[in-house]
Write a structure and sequence with these properties.
Rossmann fold, five-stranded parallel sheet, UROS/Hem4, Uroporphyrinogen-III synthase, 4pyrrol_synth_uPrphyn_synth
Length: 319
Amino acid sequence: MASNEEASASAATPEPAPAPAPELAAVPKPPSLPPFKVLLLKEPAKPCKYATTLAPRNGTVSYCPVLAFERTPDAAQRVVDAILKAQPGDASPGQLGVVVTSPRAAEVIADALRLLETTLSVDERANVPSWLRSFPVGEETASRLGTFASKSMGKAGSAKDLLPEILAWVGEAKASRRVLFVSGNLRRDTIPHGLQEAGISMEEIVVYRTIPDPSPALPEEWTRLQEATINDSPSVPRFAVFFSPSGVTCIAGASSAQSLASDVRLVAIGKTSAASLESDGAALLAHAAQPQVMTCLAPSPSGLLEVIQAEIMRHTSGE
């Protein structure tokens, strides 16, 4: 045993001071861009991920709702009924893949799942994740699915990109996997035709109608024929962003369309909107600051920022 003297000496010896924590390197802020303006041809959202992504980079964001959306009667209940009909059991084992290509349809699905919770027993609700899957197009669509987003089988940027994912999933167990397409009345035929060609049946529920605004009210600054200048600096680049083919059709037919196009660069958030701009929006392109459609590689705020940044760099370098 240690003597009293040894114990006292040991107690008097101070513990070594802990080493100071290493300083964390400051996260560099992204470089600011020259001032630019962006018109989002959609309804404003709160919060708007596009605004929060572009504003820190010196961007000013405006909105112009060009479309209205009207739910069909009992939309959420009809989705619930379709899900319950596909619920696994002795007569129908398997899984259901829910395809959704727009944020409006995703909101209906989220409402349907909340409604479903009041229909199923506790045990049945616990079993839902094992047999229900979602196939959304784009980050915004996926984000509006609520908790159902966690069961996503992918987040493709377009219906064309999503189709192979659906075919691969069904092909793994074709006899026991079914497809439910929750859509709007103006949806494209890409997914239905692709499934039909592959011999895969699907059920479709149209849950909303798109109603174009015959005369969208563009913000006043966007109706000017000349680009704005700031303290005699070079013209401020302006971008008009299209989010759907129906939005392209609406703007192309508006009386203010030429003044919109005359001082902006036209951006398509995805491939289908780009194709529509090149066809239905040909007159817009003829008056635009750039005659080519700029297309986001990903239909997301970061994808839009990449397009804008590349164009501003080209613009400021005088190419």
